[in-house]
Design a protein that fits this description.
Blueprint (H helix, E strand, L loop, with lengths): L1 H16 L28 H4 L7 E8 L2 E5 L2 H9 L1 H4 L8 H5 L7 E8 L2 E5 L2 H7 L3 H15 L8
Antiparallel strand pairs: 1-2, 3-4
């Protein structure tokens, strides 16, 4: 019952925010805005080098997997280009808890955690509170489910 409540709430929020993966970003595997911007413009490298997210500059960008990423500095952009997989959020930037529940919903760049060198996002503070109660379990479940979800339109789930 809890899972159905979460799925319904998360699905509704996706529709309201409009922050879902789209064909403009090259498929359904990356969470982007309708303009193809990933992470709402937050610099993915900043989590790792600064220990916190920083907004990227519209003038410093890179395109990866059809999505546009912004960076706070050219150095961060260059680090990203050298090894994008090191800095990309897991599950294409969709919510880690939602992925474990079998849905693709927005991941908020301000609700994040680095676990074993990987960046995970969550949808909302209450969702993140639930996720941190069993991070290894939710990651294991999400890793298993991501293969089935990765190329599916969020609205089809």
């Amino acid at each position: 019952m809890f899972a159905n409540l979460i799925r319904g709430s998360l699905a509704a929020l996706v529709v309201v925010t409009g922050l879902v993966s789209n064909a403009l970003a090259g498929g359904f595997d990356v969470n982007t805005t309708i303009t193809g911007l990933a992470l709402r413009g937050v610099d993915p490298v900043s989590y790792f080098v600064d220990g916190e997210p920083h907004d990227g500059s519209i003038a410093i960008t890179a395109v990866h997997n059809g999505a546009t990423y912004r960076f706070a500095s050219e150095e961060n952009r260059d680090l990203f280009k050298q090894n994008p997989d090191k800095y990309l959020p897991q599950y294409g930037g969709f919510c880690a808890f939602g992925t474990a529940m079998g849905v693709k919903v927005d991941g908020d760049p301000d609700l994040w955690k680095i676990v074993d060198g990987k960046l995970y996002l969550n949808l909302a503070p209450s969702i993140q509170e639930r996720w941190v109660k069993d991070i290894p379990g939710f990651i294991a479940t999400a890793d298993t489910k991501w293969g089935d979800l990765e190329n599916v339109n969020p609205s089809d789930l």
